[in-house]
UniProtKB/TrEMBL annotation:
Name the UniProt record assigns to this protein: MobQ family relaxase
Record InterPro entries: MobA_MobL
Coiled-coil features, chain-numbered ranges: 369-447
Domain annotation MobA/MobL protein: ranges: 43-238
Region (Disordered): 721-740
Keyword Glycoprotein applies: no
Keywords: Coiled coil, Conjugation
Organism: Lactobacillus crispatus
Similarity section: Belongs to the MobA/MobL family.
Amino acid sequence: TISTPFRLCAPCGAERKLQKGITAEMAIYHLSMKIISRSSGYSAVASAAYRSGSLMLDERTGLTHDYTRKSGVAEAVILTPATAPAWCTNRAELWNAVEKAERRKNSQLAREIELAIPHELPQDAARETVLAFVRENFVSQGMIADVAFHHMDKTNPHAHIMLTTRAVGPAGFGGKVRDWNDRTHAETWRASWADHANRALANAGYQEEIDHRSYERQGLEKTPGIHLGKSACAMETRGIETERGEQNRLINRLNLEIQISRTELRNGGLTEPARRVADLLNIGLPDNATSYTLRDIIEALPKDSNSAWKLTSNAMSMMADMQATRRRWEELNTERKEAMSHAASLKKSSPFSSGFSRIPLMQWAAPEYRSEQGKIQSLSQQMEKLRQHYRKVEKQDIPASQMAFEKQWQQWGESGLAALRAQLLKREEELRRKEQEDTERSRAEQLRKNDNAVMDSGVLRAVVTGYGEAPMPGNGEMTCYLLLHNRNGEYTLWGNELEKYRTRIFERVDLMRDRSGYICDRSEIGQHPPLQRVYSSATFEQLLTQVCQTWPQYTRNLRQPKTWPESFCLGEDRQPAMPSPAARKVDFMQGRLPPTLMPVMSSVDRETRQLQLLLVMGVDDSLGGVVRLNGTLYPAFAVPSADNSQLVISALTDKGLRYAGYGVAVNHDADSHISPAPELMEFHLKTREAPLFAAVNTPEKQPDHLFRSLGFNRTWEEWQREEDARTHTTERRHDRGWSQ
C-alpha cells in the first residue's frame, strides 16, 4: 500500500514535482473536511461561485461574486436526492436558499470536502469515480452536493464538494440533520474514498493503492513529511531552496533508505535458491515473525507448479484484470437491460411512432425511442469488446504465461521451493527455541522474586496481598492476619505464626511496623485482595442455545465466537477481568440454570423490528441473552453491581468477554411525582449515543429479589399495594365530594 510522504492541507502540484528523483511519482491520498460558517466570515454563495468559477448574486448581502475568469475549473456538477425540488439544480437559487434558511450570525452554512484525485486516472474515469463516491456517501443520505473539478488536465487534479446541512423536501429546506455531524462519519468517508480510488486505479491497470490511514496506523516505518505551503512551493519550483523543502528532501531520502533496507532484510538469512523462490512467489518474511507466523507461511506454500504460478505477480495481475473486466461487463449488461426495458415501454406507449420510426421518412416520429436503440447498440458493442478481451486473457495470455512459468519452474523452481521450506523450518525451530528460553527465563525471574527456597528456612519471602484483624479459625479469638502469595500458593498467617519468620533485615516480624514494606520487595500492604466472580462458560452456552431455540426469528443472525473460553471472570465492578492468582474467588462454576427458561426483559426496535436486547434468568443472580452492538447481535452476560444500583452488561466477542455498558432502573417519572411501575430499565451501551429502554417481561410474575437486584426501589407487589391504596383514597375523596 502506497501513501504520500507529505501531509497536505491542500493538494499541491509543486510538492509532487519535488518528489521526482527520490521516488517514482505515484497516486497520493488527501481528503480534508471543514465547515463553511458565517461566523468565520464566509458566504455559501461566494464559496460556491469561487469553486465553480461562475458569477452569482448574493441576495442576502447584495454583493455580486464574479469568478468567471478563474483558471483551472474543469467542470461543476450539482447532485440532488430524489426528494429535492427541481430548482435545487440551479446553483444560484440553491445557495441563496441556504443563506435564507440560516438566520443566526454563527450559522453553519455548508460542509466542504476537498479530495485529491489520482493523476493516473483518465479524466472521464476520475470524474465518474468522484461522482460515484458522492452519490454513495452523501446524496443517498439526503444531502445536496455541489461538486467542482479543478486542474483535471495537470498534475494536481482535485475536487471540491460543498454539501448542504439541512434536510430538503418538495417545500424546500427543513431542519438541521444533526446526525450528519457525527464524527464517526469522517473515518467512514475517508475509507470510502480510498476504496473508490483504488478500484478505479485497478480498472485502469495500476497496482498502486492509496490508504486513508496514517503511516503509524498502517504499521509503516515511514516519517510523514511537512506541508510546504504556497510560498515555499513557488520558491522551490523556481529553484530556490527553502528550509521546509530541505526537511522534506531529507525525509524522502530517509523513507527510501528504510524501504531499501526492509526489502534487503525481508528475506535475510535465506540461501540463494530459497530467496529466489520467495521473491518469485511474493512471499515476504516479517521482521517480527514468530514460529506461528512461519508455520502459516509453510502451510501456504504451493504443492505444485499450477498453485505456484497463481502466487506470481503476473498471474495475480491477469486474474485482477479478468475480475475487473467481468465486473464492468456485468455493469454494462445491467445498464443495457434497463435501456431495453425503457425502449419496450416507449414502444408499448406509442406503438405507431415506434413502428414508423424504422422508415427513413418517418424517423422524426420517435426520437426518444431511437436514442434508446442507439444506446443499446453502443452498450452491446462495449460488452462485445470486453468479452473479447476476457477471452483473450483467458485463452491466450494465461496459458502462455503458465507455459513459460512451467519451463522456469522445472529448471530451478522445485529445488528452490524445497530449499525455502527447509530454511523456514529451520528458522521456525530457532524461533520456537528462543520463545521457550524467554518463557523459562521469565518464569525463573518470577520464582526468584517470590521464592521461599532461595533464602534461609526461617525467612519468609512472599507478596503481601492484604492484612487485617479477624476471628482466628478454631478458637474464634480476634487476632491479626496476613494474606500472602508466592510460588507455593496462597495462604494466611494468623497471630503468633508471624513470630516464626524474619524479615529481610533479619528481625522478627511485627505486623504494625512491617506493613510499611519490610516483608517483600513488591509489598501491597493496605490493599485487600480483589474479589473475583467466576462463571462457567459451558453453562452460559447451554442457556444461549435455549434462547436461540425459543426465539429463532430474532436470533437468526447471532454472532458467536469461534472458540469459547473455559470460564468468565468478573471483577469487583462486575466488568470482565483477567484471572488473578492473588484474588479471592467466588465460584459459580457449579451453578445450575433454572428448570424453565425465564425471560426477564427485552427491547425490539419499532421500525426495523430487530431485537436489541434480550435477557433471561441465569445462574444465581446473573442474566444471559443477546445484545445488539453496532448492528451486530452478540451473546450477552449481565450481573448486578455490588450495591444493586446498576446491571452491568458484557458481550462475548471473538476477543473474549468485553464490557458493553450498563442499565439502571427507571424509578422516577419526570412528568409526575408518583413513582412509575417497576417495569422499565434504561441502558447505556458503548456503541449507542441514545439510551436504550427495555421492559421487564410480565413483572407480576417475577420474583421479589429480582427487582431488588435490578435496582428498583420497590417490588411489583409493593407498587401494586401502593397503587391500590392510592386508587382507594381517590375514590373515597370522590364519594365525599359527591355527597356534599
